[in-house]
């Protein structure tokens, strides 16, 4: 019997709008059936990393493991696509548990917005001038003024995404640290960022917010005109991601550093 139930029909297939993903959805549901996510034992996400993040966010309350198959252009969180032997692959899959970041953004109009981010929270300039940010960690000012295009706080799972493109460090899965990385830092010019404890509360305060507007982004979901942003790891939420044996996040993080 499968670890995900007696029938392959306990699988909920979800797909991005990309033609390749829609073709895969039709082929897989014809072969294995389809189940509503609320009644499923496992979710199979068809698309790229962006769709995988959307799926994890959208099905968070169900507490189900999610197995991604790459039908997009980027697939760090995904497994290779194959129509055959899906039940056996699901049974053999290894599970990774990931805590997201919780972002609370305070906006110029007095609003407060909370979002979760599996990969990273980024602050980015939203106008022609560089952003000016004050960085406070656990109530202590660590940098009075960072002039930059932006700053990123990422989880180990997100360290190979935008963070890595901004020359941030790759973090091993399971490490109790977060990476804070500057995007195109102008002053201090040589500052590349910091490693912080997973328990840290990080606060970015936007200086000259009206003259130098800044947006906050949590896994692609944006809040504009922010005055300040508070970020911390959320231990009360766990995402369950399934990987083929030998191809989990730990291996991918190591391999990425040798390419």
TrEMBL record:
Keywords: ATP-binding, Cytoplasm, Kinase, NAD, NADP, Nucleotide-binding, Transferase. GO terms for cellular component: cytoplasm. One of its GO terms (biological process) is NAD+ metabolic process. It holds the Pfam family NAD_kinase_C. It is found in: Cytoplasm. NAD(+) binds at residues 49-50, 119-120, 149, 157, 160-165, 184. The active site is at 49 (proton acceptor). Its EC number is 2.7.1.23. GO terms for molecular function: ATP binding; metal ion binding; NAD binding; NAD+ kinase activity. Its cofactor is a divalent metal cation. It is an enzyme of class 2 (transferase). Involved in the regulation of the intracellular balance of NAD and NADP, and is a key enzyme in the biosynthesis of NADP. Catalyzes specifically the phosphorylation on 2'-hydroxyl of the adenosine moiety of NAD to yield NADP. Belongs to the NAD kinase family. This is NAD kinase. It comes from Falsigemmobacter faecalis.
């Amino acid at each position: 019997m499968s670890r995900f139930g007696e029938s392959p029909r306990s699988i909920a297939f979800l797909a991005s709008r990309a033609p390749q993903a829609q073709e895969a959805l039709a082929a897989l549901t014809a072969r294995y059936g389809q189940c509503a996510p609320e009644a499923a034992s496992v979710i199979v996400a068809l698309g790229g990393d962006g769709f995988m993040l959307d799926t994890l966010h959208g099905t968070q309350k169900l507490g189900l493991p999610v197995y991604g198959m790459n039908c997009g252009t980027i697939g760090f969180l995904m497994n290779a696509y194959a129509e055959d032997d899906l039940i056996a692959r699901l049974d053999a899959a290894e599970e990774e548990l990931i805590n997201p970041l919780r972002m609370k953004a305070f906006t110029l109009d007095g609003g407060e917005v909370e979002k979760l981010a599996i990969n990273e929270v980024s602050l980015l300039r939203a106008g022609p001038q560089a952003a000016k940010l004050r960085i406070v960690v656990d109530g202590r000012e660590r940098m009075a003024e960072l002039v930059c295009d932006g700053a990123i706080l990422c989880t180990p799972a997100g360290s190979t995404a935008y963070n890595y493109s901004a020359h941030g460090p790759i973090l091993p899965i399971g490490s109790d640290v977060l990476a804070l990385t500057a995007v195109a830092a102008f002053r201090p010019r040589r500052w590349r960022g910091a490693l912080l404890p997973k328990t840290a509360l990080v606060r970015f305060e936007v200086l000259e917010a009206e003259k130098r507007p800044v947006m906050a982004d949590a896994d692609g979901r944006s809040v504009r005109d922010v005055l300040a942003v508070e970020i911390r790891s959320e231990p009360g939420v766990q995402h369950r991601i399934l990987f083929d044996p030998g191809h989990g996040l730990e291996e991918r993080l190591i391999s990425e550093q040798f390419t």
